[in-house]
From TrEMBL:
SUPFAM superfamilies (alphabetical): PLP-dependent transferases
Protein name per the record: Cystathionine beta-lyase
Family, as annotated: Belongs to the trans-sulfuration enzymes family.
Tree of life domain: Bacteria
InterPro entries the UniProt entry points to: Cys/Met-Metab_PyrdxlP-dep_enz (IPR000277), Cys_b_lyase_bac (IPR006233), PyrdxlP-dep_Trfase (IPR015424), PyrdxlP-dep_Trfase_major (IPR015421), PyrdxlP-dep_Trfase_small (IPR015422)
Root EC class: lyase
Catalytic activity: L,L-cystathionine + H2O = L-homocysteine + pyruvate + NH4(+)
Region described as Disordered: spans on this chain: 1-28
Assigned EC number: 4.4.1.13
Keywords: Lyase, Pyridoxal phosphate
Keyword Lyase recorded: yes
GO molecular function, one term: cysteine-S-conjugate beta-lyase activity
Record organism: Hoeflea algicola
């Protein structure tokens, strides 16, 4: 057996280290080459006409993008993966792949904000209607399914407020009505949750986050099962969407250490989240791995780990003071950067805007502060948060 042959019993870190590239296929070099390509030359006219060649044009894949896609396929257990230039592209391409004019899509109300904007500002222009549903719905989602419902989009945990979803129950209902299921699984990565094993057809990731891991890459991936792969692959080629070879190479490089980085993110985030529970000035800690969280049982049943992002709700009775208190908290931080995205090595913080919610309404106790726990020492980060809480209290 070739030492690089896939074996399902290998541990995650072993698979992360060895997946996606066989060094012997490129003269023994450990990492795959970065192939910059647009034009591909064919050996003769017949091959050019039939396109009977592994590579035909740069937008259809290169050895570099294929190496990353192969690694993701191994982690996801998918029939195929497409590499896209951003996380939002990884949402929009599968939507466009399976939805047509006159169709209906169900979207969880705790969805990533740009996904909602894509549905409201783009899909509606093409006669596709989106309905937002309560993330706490499981099999009850059946009451919202229409004859023209073609897709149910899920995200667990939900953006900013981290609601859990009963993914297997939703998938069973959707499939019973002929609809596909997509899931934004960026929070957990396929290391801590494998969507396709729980009935999801299209697994979506902003690889910008944990796979790349260093706040310098924009990339997305979509992995499909056998049923959804033909439509996804075709739509991706028709749209001309593709991740760059340099970003694909760097993401594959980041993937090698994702397991050990996630372990540290998880450990520090849980330590800080537990320390903040019951702390004066904190009304709630929104982290699915905490026993106090309403969706903890679903997380414990389906997930095998948690990542480094969660939220706290500041204890601010006066709604008119939410913004001022949140800004005082953010401005007092020194180790946490004020910036969007997450999944990198550094800690970040944002004041979550939940004004677009229609069903999963924002907590009433106070403003929601989202914390991305990086790779710094957790004691230092906790001290920074304590200082910020004191500033918010004084504001």
């Amino acid at each position: 057996m070739n030492k690089h042959e896939k074996t399902p019993n290998r541990g995650l870190n072993t698979r992360l280290t060895h997946s996606g590239h066989d060094p012997q296929s490129y003269h023994g070099f450990v990492n795959p080459p970065v192939v910059h390509a647009s034009t591909v030359l064919f050996p003769d006219a017949a091959t050019m006409e039939s396109r009977n060649s592994k590579y035909t044009y740069g937008t259809h894949g290169t050895p570099t993008t294929d190496a990353l896609a192969a690694a993701i396929d191994e982690l996801e257990g998918s029939a195929g993966t497409v590499i896209l230039p951003s996380g939002l592209a990884a949402v929009s391409v599968p939507f466009l792949a399976v939805l047509s004019a006159g169709d209906h899509v169900l979207v969880v109300d705790s969805v990533y904000g740009p996904t909602r904007r894509f549905c409201n500002d783009m899909l509606c222009r093409y006669g596709i209607e989106a309905t937002y549903y309560n993330p706490m719905m499981g099999a009850e989602i059946e009451q919202l399914i229409r004859p023209n419902t073609k897709l149910v989009h899920t995200e667990a945990p939900g953006s900013n407020t981290f609601e859990m979803q009963d993914i297997p129950a939703i998938a069973e209902v959707a499939h019973g009505h002929g609809a596909l299921v997509s899931m934004d699984n960026t929070w957990a990565t396929p290391l801590y949750f494998k969507p396709l094993d729980h009935g999801v057809d299209l697994s979506i990731h902003a690889a910008t986050k944990y796979p790349a891991g260093h706040s310098d890459i924009l990339l997305g991936t979509v992995s499909a099962n056998e049923a959804a792969w033909p439509a996804l692959n075709t739509a991706n080629m028709l749209l001309g969407m593709c991740g760059s070879p340099d970003d694909s190479y760097m993401t594959l490089r980041g993937l090698r250490t994702m397991g050990v980085r996630l372990e540290r993110h998880q450990q520090s985030a849980l330590q800080i989240a537990r320390a903040l529970e019951g702390r004066p000035g904190v009304a709630k800690v929104l982290h699915p791995a905490l026993e106090s969280f309403p969706g903890h049982d679903l997380w414990k049943r389906d997930f095998c780990g948690s990542s480094g992002i969660f939220s706290i709700v500041l204890d601010v009775a006066d709604a008119e003071r939410h913004r001022a208190k949140a800004h005082a908290f953010l401005d007092a931080l020194t180790l946490f950067g004020l910036g969007y995205s997450w999944g990198g090595y550094e800690s970040l913080c944002v004041y979550a805007n939940l004004s677009d919610r229609t069903v999963a309404l924002p907590p009433k106790e106070g403003p929601v502060i989202r914390l991305q726990i990086g790779l710094e020492d957790s004691e230092d980060l906790l001290a920074d948060i304590e200082k910020a809480l004191a500033a918010a209290n004084a504001a």
